[in-house]
């Protein structure tokens, strides 16, 4: 039987029933990677010998009567996670030989749950792109169209899932890095509530792996079904044991509802700072129509929604002030010169990005204070609604664009060009306040490319958008393998 595209939940049941062994699943996954990954380049660091050994160990454990959530299931891991015995480079050539001494906390949790790690998946340089290419490992192609990007920075993981290379993957997200690749490749991903899942060991080399969370950034699950996201999130969730002294499980509240008709949903398909392409708008409307057809309360406007333009500016300020904090002095001084040359009247996102790169601590504290006001606004909105449905980016996957200056790149939205980085505003809707967001497939573009949307939920109520994703999957369908 062909197992490569089966959901993790189905694989777990088959392993428990003795229909298949982990060794067989692992050999089948490796054979598929060896056959198909030359064209896709998703698996940048294979670890097949250790994967086969782990699979044999999983089969022996099951024979002893053991059972764990992921026992024997083949998975992949984003390159940016430390895995003992494998390089962690973040795609940065000076660190091509960096070899961490121990696993990241999430890799440890995967292994403790019994997962079989097939290898690591490709990323952009420093995880700082909506694409996945670097000088060390090359370019990852979208399985639906090799001339297009699978997204970034978890692009290798999304491409691997779409191509049948493992049942699950773990990625990270600060600017849509879980959600955008899921949208571009037609798979599922979940950006957890900020702080829900420990991230130690998901750190740029050669920095030490310390239990310090990066503002805005999260680690999270990727899968081919919504239920598999929940399965993997339950493995990943919980604070770092180094901060508590002991491992600690998080008891998330249950989903607010179990039926589509009970959900109260706000639909957003327009952003004041960038247009929504027709294909993505159609995906949002497909979800809205399915919700309405099921009897859910669907609204398209609410005075409770925090103002999106200010939210985007705050997100830009918090994101870019953080991203450049460790830049070399010479690069920082160039940014200061460029920022000083801006006109005071320039209120574009480009200007906001440049000014944010040279924020003072006072500037950052002011932005952080305004973020708290937005968080309060979201709390009020989620007293009236259960979820918000909106785009992840304005377009489906776009053609590879390797211009080294991302500020000079342009994004084509229905024939009109816009600044490349402006597409991040939709990711920021959930990221700036730290809200959970589940990326789901929502149909195909006229060119046949996947289109996804995100379901944003209340803080620490991750199970609500995850359950909504599961119900929508039953209603409108979910992952389809690329032809």
UniProtKB/TrEMBL annotation:
Enzyme class: hydrolase
Record key words, sorted: Hydrolase
Entry EC number(s): 3.5.1.4
Pfam family, one: Amidase
Superkingdom, natural source: Bacteria
GO molecular-function terms, A-Z: amidase activity
Residue span, Amidase domain: 24-464
Matches recorded under PANTHER family: FATTY-ACID AMIDE HYDROLASE, FATTY-ACID AMIDE HYDROLASE 2
Name this polypeptide is given: Amidase
